[in-house]
């Protein structure tokens, strides 16, 4: 079976399961929205949001709900040992990784579709003034975060205390992605948007994506072999 | 042969180096702007060198374990990870003490400080995974170590673009001779201590594996 076909079949499988229950989507969405709301109470004083808070809140909400979604997505594979079945199947391990990654990415993009306008609204942040650049930052940042997250969540499926270990392992490693995302977004939100700086952070995010995805594809096979 | 005897000579040599180090540091001239407080340098920088060396050793050993399936490499990686956390602690305590006097603040979100802290956190996470991950966590931890070691230059780079205050590493090359030799003395003492501790820890881990084998053989 070709690489792309395997990826497509895994994405379709995950999509069908999710479309029937919508469990991960709804819980993650609700979590992301409540996350933004909690920050709203913390960072809005006398009816005015703190300067520079919006970009940080947006990325923290993405990172937190991403962690939750990753945990849930693989918990489902664990419950009935379906991940083992996937690993036994005569398919390329990297294709399995890419399939799971695409599924997680699609879910996170839906979450972002909701929370980006929410943050823009609640923190009076002009997130749509440079929509294309903003979208680039979101896509590249989410790929970087999810690339590491998918690998770690997959390998933690068999580990004890995986719920705690996922964020413990994931956050220190993805800090460069978060820094680049937050700084790039903050540059766009300044009173006088700094396009050059935002572009620089975007190119850095692309670089992180390439390295993280390559490293993950490279380590997925030996890590998942028992 | 009892391998413990091999440790005696290096141990004595390193203990002697550490005993003499205060005299060497005392004899070194005062730095023109920072004065006495600059002497933390002889302690702080060698510890940082040992820490980064250790992280590097752990990353390489993990890759060898993961792709070459060599059990011994895993034992070395675990030993190196523990020492990374230990020497990192020394760096992260001595650094703020110096910063408080030299910059007026305990902490700055500067490139080198942030990347050191992140590296330290990654190796803490590595140890947490080894300790609480259950069976099979050695392979998972090896994956984390590879990412962690690869991550350091990125954190460094991304924060460097942001802001920087810490003196660059080329300070070491431009030191005056009177400051250079106590520094080299401390650096060799520290790296020697690191090597010795790594060897001892690695030996312990090997002995544990042997004991495990004997237990298993006795049960059969």
Describe what you observe in this structure.
The complex is a heterodimer of chains A (226) and B (220). Chain A is mostly helical. Chain A has helices at 3-21, 23-43, 53-79, 82-88, 93-122, 131-156, 162-189, 195-224, and strands at residues 44-45, 48-49. Chain A has one domain (3-224). The longest helix of chain A is centred in the middle third of the chain and has 30 residues, at 93-122. By secondary structure, chain B is mainly α. Chain B has one domain (40-219). Chain B contains 6 helices and no strands. Chain B has helices at 8-27, 41-68, 71-102, 111-132, 137-162, 177-219. Chain B is globular, with a radius of gyration of 20 Å. The mean pLDDT of chain B is 84. Chains A and B meet through helix 6, helix 7 and helix 8 of A and helix 4 and helix 5 of B.
Annotate the secondary structure layout.
The complex is a heterodimer of chains A (226) and B (220).
Chain A: H1 3-21, H2 23-43, E1 44-45, E2 48-49, H3 53-79, H4 82-88, H5 93-122, H6 131-156, H7 162-189, H8 195-224
Helix pairs in contact in A: 1-5, 2-3, 2-5, 3-5, 3-6, 3-7, 5-6, 5-8, 6-7, 6-8, 7-8
Chain B: H1 8-27, H2 41-68, H3 71-102, H4 111-132, H5 137-162, H6 177-219
Helix pairs in contact in B: 1-6, 2-3, 2-5, 2-6, 3-4, 3-6, 4-5
Q: What would the keywords be for this entry?
A:
heterodimer; A: mainly alpha; two-stranded antiparallel sheet; 8 helices; 83% helix; globular; B: mainly alpha
């Amino acid at each position: 079976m070709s690489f792309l076909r395997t990826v497509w079949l895994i994405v379709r499988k995950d999509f069908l399961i999710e479309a029937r229950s919508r469990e991960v989507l709804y819980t993650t969405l609700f979590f992301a929205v409540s996350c933004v709301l909690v920050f709203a109470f913390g960072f809005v004083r006398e009816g005015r949001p703190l300067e520079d808070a919006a970009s940080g809140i947006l990325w923290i909400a993405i990172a937190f709900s991403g962690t939750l979604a990753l945990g849930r997505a693989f918990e489902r594979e664990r419950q009935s040992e379906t991940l083992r079945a996937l690993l036994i199947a005569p398919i390329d391990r990297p294709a399995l990784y890419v399939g799971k990654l695409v599924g997680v990415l699609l879910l996170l993009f839906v979450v972002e579709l909701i929370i980006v306008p929410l943050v823009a609204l609640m923190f009076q942040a002009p997130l749509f003034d440079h929509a294309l650049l903003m979208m680039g930052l979101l896509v590249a940042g989410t790929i970087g975060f999810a690339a590491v997250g998918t690998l770690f969540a997959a390998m933690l499926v068999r580990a004890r205390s995986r719920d705690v270990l996922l964020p413990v392992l994931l956050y220190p490693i993805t800090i460069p992605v978060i820094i680049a995302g937050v700084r790039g977004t903050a540059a766009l939100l300044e009173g006088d948007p700094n396009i050059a700086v935002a572009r620089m952070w975007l190119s850095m995010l692309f670089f992180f994506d390439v390295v993280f995805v390559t490293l993950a594809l490279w380590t997925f096979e030996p890590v998942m072999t028992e | 042969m009892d391998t413990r005897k091999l440790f005696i000579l290096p141990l004595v040599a390193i203990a002697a180096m550490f005993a003499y180090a205060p005299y060497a540091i005392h004899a070194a001239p005062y730095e023109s702007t920072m004065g006495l407080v600059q002497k933390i340098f002889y302690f702080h920088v060698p510890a940082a060198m040992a820490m980064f060396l250790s992280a590097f050793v752990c990353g390489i050993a993990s890759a060898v374990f993961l792709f070459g399936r060599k059990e011994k490499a895993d034992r070395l990686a675990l030993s190196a990870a523990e020492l990374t956390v230990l020497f990192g602690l020394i760096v992260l305590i001595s650094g703020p003490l110096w910063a408080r006097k030299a910059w007026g603040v305990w902490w700055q979100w500067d490139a080198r400080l942030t990347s050191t802290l992140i590296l330290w956190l990654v190796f803490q996470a590595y140890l947490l995974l080894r300790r609480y991950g259950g069976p099979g966590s050695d392979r998972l931890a090896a994956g984390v170590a590879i990412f962690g070691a690869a991550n350091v230059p990125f954190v460094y780079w991304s924060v460097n673009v942001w802001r920087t205050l810490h003196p660059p590493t080329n300070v070491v090359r431009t030191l005056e001779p009177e400051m250079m030799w106590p520094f080299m003395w401390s650096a060799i003492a520290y790296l020697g201590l690191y090597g010795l501790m790594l060897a001892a820890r690695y030996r312990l881990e090997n002995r544990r594996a042997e004991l495990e084998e004997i237990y298993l053989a006795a049960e059969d």
